[in-house]
Every structure is written in C-alpha cells, then in structure tokens.
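For the sake of transparency, this paper describes our internal protein records without simplification. The remainder of this section carries one protein's record, kept here as part of the documentation:
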Amino acid sequence: MTTSKENSIRIRAAIRHVFLKVWDPIGIANEPNAQDEYDSYIDRMFELLTNNAPDVELKKYLDWCVDRMGMDSSRHSDADVIQALRAIDLNEPTQ
C-alpha cells in the first residue's frame, strides 16, 4: 500500500495514540515528558499495518517490543491493542 506523506503522518500519529492509550506496557501515558517513549516502535507497526500483516504478526511484534523493554506484557490485552490498531483508517482522506 502506498500512502502520501500526510496520510503517513496521520497513521503514525494514530499508532502513537494506540501505543500510549491502549498498549502502554510501561505505564507512561500520563507522563508529559515521556510521550515519545514508544516512537521507535511506530515505523515497524506502520509497515505491518499498511502491508496488511495478519494479527499473529502484530502480536509477535508487540511481544518482541515488550520483551525488548524488559516489561511484563500482562498489563494489557493484545486483542484490545490489535483491535485498536485495526480500527485505524489507513485510507487516504477524501477531499
């Protein structure tokens, strides 16, 4: 899937929102100085979503991220996170 720069920015912002508000394995959603904590994981999730990767691949990536952080994944439901990511509209906005 190809996407415009503006749409890419919008999708990445939506992924960031899901990471902070739904996923948040570190528990920093309400820490103003830590809002960029998960930004290094956004690009790969963007690729997975825009390439229509199956849910099992999204889960594997989320698990990898949490493991890399040295955190416990029990803070969140992978199903809820994946559902929120799948709810992101990947289409170009119509004018």
